[in-house]
Each structure stands twice: as C-alpha cells, then as structure tokens.
Amino acid sequence: MNLHEYQGKELLKQYGVDVQEGVVVENKDKLGEAYQKLKDQTKTDFVVVKAQIHAGGRGKGGGVKLAKNKEEYLEISNDILGMMLKTPQTPGGMDGEGKLVQKILVAEDVYAPDFEANDEIYISILTDREKNANVIVYSTEGGMDIEAVAEETPEKVHKEFVDPELGLLPFQKRKIAFNLGLSGKAFKGMTKFIGNLYKAFTSSDASLFEINPCLRTGDDRILAVDCKVTIDDNALYRHKDIAEMRDESEEDPTEVEAKNHGLSYVKLDGNVGCMVNGAGLAMATMDMIKLYGGEPANFLDVGGTADAARVEQAFRIILKDENVKAILINIFGGIVRCDRVAKGVVEAAGNIDITVPIIVRLQGTNAELGKKIIDESGLKVESAILLEEAAEAVQNALK
C-alpha cells in the first residue's frame, strides 16, 4: 500500500524523524487558512506547493512549485489543485492522461537563500531478499533520478546491509554519515536521522522508504523534504492506523473492486486473462503463457474457495480489460475440489456474455470429474490436463 507524501511524513514524525512541515489542503476555500497557519509557524512568506498523488517526478510535470508571497501561492495552488498532473510515472507517462490532483501539501520553504549551502541527499531503505537483509541505499546526489546516478556514476551510490536480527548498529550509522561527507552538527544529525528512519521502516512493516531529497539545510539540520512510503499489504492487519490511510482513488478501480471481493488482482499489459488459485501457481501460469508466445493480462488469484460466485466475479473483473483475447483458468484441487470449480466455471459462464475463448486446466482432487463436467457443459470451453497443453491451446486461440 502506497502512502501520500504528507501521510509518510506523519508516520516518520511518530518515530522522531525530522521532516519538512506542511499543511494538507483538499478544498480551495481552505487555501488562505492553510497559508496563514504555515506563515505563523515559519515566520516567512515563502511556501512550497506540492501535488499529492501516488507518482514520482511531480516537479517535472509542474506539480511542485515555490511561491514567494500569498498572491503567488493562491495562483499556483488554484492551478495545481484539480489539475490532471502528468509525470514520467503516471499512467502513459508525460503523454498519458495523468492523475487528478485532489490534495496539495503546502510546505515550509526549508532551503537557504544560497542554494549551494544546501546538500540534497538520497536515502532509501528496502529489503534485499537475496541477502536476507535490509539495505540502506544512499548517495550525495539527491534530488535526482537515482537510476541515472547509478548508471552514470555508480561510485556515488552506497549500500549498507543490515542484519534484521541485529538491527542498525552504531558504527553503520556513523559510516553512512561519513560516506556522505558530513561533519559536526550535520554528522550527528544524520546518525540520529538514519537511526530513527530505520526504526520507522521496521516498526511499520514497510517494504520501501525513499527520502529524496533528504536535506542538509544551511544551518546543518537533516530533514526529509520528500518521502515515498510503501507498506507491506500482508502486515496491515497489525497497523490499523496505517490501513486507514489507504487512498483508493489513487489505486486501479478494478484492483480495488477485486480486493473488496476477496480476490488478489494485479493488472498487467498482455492479452491473456489468468484465473488461478495460489500465488505460486499464478507465477508458473504466467511464465508458461510467455514461454508459448503470449502475454498475461493480469494476475488473479481466487484463493482456496473457488465457488461459482467467486469465479463469476473473477470473470467479470478479467473481462473489464478490453485487451483480454483469451482466458486461461488453471486450478489445482487441493483445498478445493476440481469438480466444484468446474461447476462454478460452467455456472458463471452461463451468467455472463463471454465472447473470448476459455481454456480450463484442472489438476488435483476430482480432476477427471471436473474435466468431464467442462466437456459435457455444451459451452465453448476447452479443457486441458497438462499446463503445456493449456498454454498451447491459449496460443492457438489467439491466432
């Protein structure tokens, strides 16, 4: 689950991480009130207006702007709030439709007048599954695309691996601050900042924290100016307060609908709809489709209770994607019986106007009975036994 910048900063503050302060505005009638509140706190007319959408590169699309007085602020805020913001990371990129900006963050200007007195740093924390460790990625080249920095000047990107059982050790915090070229007050501030940031990462069951930029201000404070936070969905049951931050308007409507029906669905870019039970089987199914020249259109896991109602809902969700030209149903009958799944497929197919070929592959408990039910249904549904046969049947259906 992704958080907005302002939500991520609220989370960081709970763990003692210093952030660029700001006020969230959703209604244009509240713009003046937000400006005055921030001015009273910061004693300056300068503010930064930031669009709040789940996409990076907001500045490149005009979604982050500095206002030097109230008049500029009101003009900029009225332009950004309600705009369709296009960034390199919104659907379709800069040539796509963009995302509707429903909230803005009115933030304090934390940069010194002399820009060279500020250091922009990149910091992220994520999990390296190959090393079974968390990893802190950091660089002096903050405020830029870290991918470009890593490609052009890889020596400027550092990694610090952290044993989850030992946690982030004092020498590692000092090493990070040293590699960033900090000293004195800024050095001490960074060791505290990175320690609190790591604590926030582990305590919130996050899968990603990205602070870009992390700023060393003109007076040597260390602040999170921007942040991207992704929380592991599987751990949200432990964090009811974070779960309440979910903004479904920023998510794919079909994925939201699937979630509400207890289905795991992720939209992809292909033309073969996949309906399976189990994440591992889903991955194997998608691999097999690609091996035979197709492209999966989705990842859809109906779970262990693939009854008629669940299968029908899965059909409806898959068919909302106009790119789907065939559907492959691949079910392993372990917890659920294959004949029950087959009856569900037949019943669901009879209730929905399905115009694309359907290939069904059932294995496990009562697989032969399930195949018989499919074959005798009278529906235009092709059954298969081996996964290779199913993938080949899909490819033939696409010709």
TrEMBL record:
Substrate binds at residues 277, 334-336. Pathway: Carbohydrate metabolism; tricarboxylic acid cycle; succinate from succinyl-CoA (ligase route): step 1/1. It catalyses: succinate + ATP + CoA = succinyl-CoA + ADP + phosphate; GTP + succinate + CoA = succinyl-CoA + GDP + phosphate. Its cofactor is Mg(2+). Keywords: ATP-binding, Ligase, Magnesium, Metal-binding, Nucleotide-binding, Tricarboxylic acid cycle. One of its GO terms (cellular component) is cytosol. Coiled coil: none annotated. One of its GO terms (biological process) is tricarboxylic acid cycle. It comes from the Bacteria. The keyword ATP-binding applies. Pfam families: ATP-grasp_2, Ligase_CoA. Its EC number is 6.2.1.5. Belongs to the succinate/malate CoA ligase beta subunit family. HAMAP family: Succ_CoA_beta. Succinyl-CoA synthetase functions in the citric acid cycle (TCA), coupling the hydrolysis of succinyl-CoA to the synthesis of either ATP or GTP and thus represents the only step of substrate-level phosphorylation in the TCA. The beta subunit provides nucleotide specificity of the enzyme and binds the substrate succinate, while the binding sites for coenzyme A and phosphate are found in the alpha subunit. Heterotetramer of two alpha and two beta subunits. NCBIfam families: PRK00696.1 (NF001913), sucCoAbeta (TIGR01016). This is Succinate--CoA ligase [ADP-forming] subunit beta.
